[in-house]
Amino acid sequence: MTITTAPGYGYADLGALMSEMTGDEKHEPAATSTLDVLWVLYDQVLAVGPQRTDDPDRDRFLLSKGHGPMAYYAVLAAKGFFDRSELRRFAEFGSVLGHHPDRMLVPGVEIGSGSLGHGLPLALGVVLGLRARGRRDPRVVVLVGDAELDEGSNHEAIAVAGRRGLGQLTAVVVDNASASYGWPGGIGERFAREGWAQRTVDGRDHDALREALTDTRPDRPLVVVAEVEPKG
Amino acid sequence: MTAIAEKTTMREAFVDTVAAALDTDPRLAVVLAEISADRFADAARRHPDRVVNVGIREQAMIGVAGGMALTGLRPVVHSITPFLVERPFEQLKLDLNHQGVGAVVVSTGASYDYPGAGRTHMAPGDVALLDTLPGWTVHVPGHPEEAAELLRAALPGDDPVYVRLSERANSEPVARGPGWHRVREGRDGVVLAVGPMLRPVLSATAGLDVTVLYAATVRPFDSTGLRHAVLGARPDVVLVEPYLAGTSTHAVADALPDIPHRVLALGVRRDAELRAYGTAEEHEVAHGLGPSAIRAAVGSFLAGAR
Hints:
Chain A has about 230 residues and is α/β, with parallel strands linked by helices. In chain A, about 30% of the residues lie in helices and about 10% in strands. Chain A has a five-stranded parallel sheet with strand order 1-2-3-5-4, with helices on both faces. In chain A, α1 (about 15-20) crosses α4 (about 70-80), α3 (about 35-45) packs parallel to α4 and α3 packs across α8. The mean pLDDT of chain A is about 95. Chain B has a seven-stranded mixed sheet, sandwiched between helices. A five-stranded mixed sheet of chain B has the order 7-9-8-11-12, with helices on both faces. Chain B is globular, with a radius of gyration of 19 Å. Chain B has about 300 residues and is α/β, with parallel strands linked by helices. The model of chain B has no long low-confidence stretch (mean pLDDT about 95). Classes of the chains: A alpha/beta (about 230), B alpha/beta (about 300). The interface between A and B is medium-sized, with 31 and 30 residues.
């Protein structure tokens, strides 16, 4: 598959790119809840790009919430990681774009995901691996859903990352209030208890997202809770 | 290779080998979930970034290993078998295999090594479980020296490797390299002994006219070595494995698609949970893996072919 350069798409084009996959201008909540966070990350925050997918000093973005990846694919296509024409083959046999992303198939995708509760422990390992290799600059940002926090494996990683003070790690929780039981005191408080810095912002507000996502601390991981409209 | 002291266990050989390799291989990392963390304390002081104890968190342990491997490191992950293979099995499947990365996964406490601890500390299904995943090399050493040698060979790689350590051991190391090693030659059948099963198998087959093959590496399965042996003896194959009976039966069948043959699979019984404490020797007897039970089973199996 060819990697395109500088396709010149902007935020306004994402709806059209997503409709190539769904044939529908109104997208499912699972697909659009992450759209603004993903755009801000790839457009304004992360040091990533199609020309540096193997650069050891690139930032890493790990999509743990692998279901509903249309927004992710749209952003990657907009940023030139693969050609827009691939979107039309979404989930066809032989396409690189499935209902869950596969790092072995899609350029720029750092982990294969879809089963919940794997991204945060993997992200923790990536941070520890980068540190062991003397790379203190690359950021590792992992996106999880609020209901995904139900999986206990996340809490194993949250505690370890917090106590080890891993400032290179950022978790973005896209909160569409879809967890059945929720977290007393709020999601951010739960992370803060484990030693994380926390920010809770409007998940549709690009300026607020950018500011929160760049508000890192050297001595503690950061969680940004991005609140979006409740899942219908 | 460095001589291993006589009383050394496989677990001690593992710790010594990996701790020494940490000093010379900057790619190597160790990820632990408390088990054996005390044994790696000196190595952790020397290499604080490359010896990570995540606490009693086995899912995170495998996920962390997968993440470290994504940065190009070679992680070694280790715990007692049920906590290493069964509890985080989906992490082995997804955080290693599915990500296209590997690790050296080292278990301790094989099928009935800790009989006083009961069922919670037994995982005789480990190799059968890993058989559901592609690409794994599975080592079942029968001696501490074999364990050290297999580990040293696995550490520089990138692929998924499982090393199954046991408190049970043969009196001498045998295996040098992969595949079946011919320990005895005979005509009436072929007996395959895996890892620590060699000692009871040699005792059980004394005086019988059978070929005895030994392997400390069971995946990939050495089909060629088995075919050679079967072509030189009657094609009656007895498989003696220290984990679930029949774990490798499919591999034997795959090796002999064109040769009419019979297989008798001995191993840890599948039909019931053995709810007993006691000693490893008592468990060996209860599973029919003591020398006299193996001899009786082999004898009647071979007699049935006459």
